[in-house]
Amino acid sequence: MSANECPKHTAFTNACSAFSNAHTIKHLAAKFGLDAQMQCNKLDASKTHKLFVEELLLLTKATYNPVTGKMDTGLRLKPCSFQVKLGFHP
User: Fold this and answer.
1) Long-range interactions of 57-62: CB distance < 8 A, separation 24+
2) 88 falls in which pLDDT band (50, 70, 90)?
């Protein structure tokens, strides 16, 4: 690990926390038929459940705003030297 990298788990945990604080997860999960309580648990670092990539993409896609044409891509790992880029369109 080089000096300019941060711990990956910390960055992702912080991103999940910020994302869940900014959105009503049960509404986002309902858009794609995901179990709302399970998704909340998966975004909570204190729980043992893990968020799958497919769920991350669906939750992000559910934040699409047709007025602005933007999505909340806050689950990208911005603080680190790498990023998970969400390259899809709604």
Assistant:
1) 57/86, 57/88, 58/31, 58/32, 58/34, 59/19, 59/25, 59/28, 59/29, 59/34, 60/86, 61/32, 61/88, 61/90, 62/27, 62/28, 62/29, 62/31, 62/32
2) very low
